[in-house]
Amino acid sequence: MIALALAAACACSQKDDGLPKEWPWNDPDADDKPFVEVTDGSFGQLPDGVRLYKSPEVLQGKPAIAYIATVDLSKRSFHVWGISDPALSGSTDPFQTPTQVYNTKDSPVLVMNGGYFYTDSGTNYSASLAVEEGELLSPNINYASEDWITIYYPTKGAFIRHADGTMEAAWTYWADASNHWIYDAPAQNGYGSTPLDQPSATFPSAGRDFEAKTAIGAGPVLVKNGQFQNTWRYECLPGDHDVNCQGRAPRTAIGCTSEGLLVLFVCEGRDITEGVPGYSTEDVANILLAFGCKEALNLDGGGSTCLLVNGLETIKPSDGSQRSVGNCIYIK
Questions:
Q1: Domain span at residue 52?
Q2: pLDDT in tens, 187-208
């Protein structure tokens, strides 16, 4: 049923304009997911609560090498490593590869790259939210521009696990250490339009005070309340050619199912394996909806995309080797 729905969706795809859409065919209760569980021991023994799935060779009508790991958080723990940049002022912490994180965090069963980051004048910066055990390591970056003349203040995507164990994809804005909010819908910015007001406790809607036990940011939000989103336009991502939401590239994403399973996704791209160019963020949203995700967020992709299972790479990094990144997700 899911495979047929995927084919139908490809045949009548909607224009990818970075705006939320209704998703008419999603069936999270279907059993025939378009991934097959890896049972041959290629990545060693998996502990109770962790399962690994591999995509078919063709997914959504395109060549694919992709993996999904699911995690039962009643049996495993969800963590984030990241450089310390809580005021967006830069960090002396070094970036690390996922393998370095694996080695320094006592060999987690899963390690996956996280959000966006950059270096300027020799200083490392996080551009994405990272929270570990309630501590804010870094907020989502709170401005954007294509020309550095017109400045926007977009709400940026985040995947949040709250202290009560609930999980959601949402949009956030950090103004300063005392003003940090979560929104159920994004500010409707967009390059080429007049910048909207800086977000606040009341704009673009009533903001909830930010609270998280564990969280990772990036964008765009792909799925919210079981509905297709892919809000790259509102998050001011089209001008960032490294993200290239409409292009086909390696991708990383995180989500959760209605049953409360954490879902980690990676796919190859850029023909690091010949004939496998990767997916757009719209494609990834569709794939995760078909898998049964009710919430999902796109993370940093391209050369950053990496998922380790027991320290072993699932996909080939498109740079040829693992990239040092600003933050990672890991599962113990």
A1: 2-331
A2: 999 999 999 999 999 999 999 9
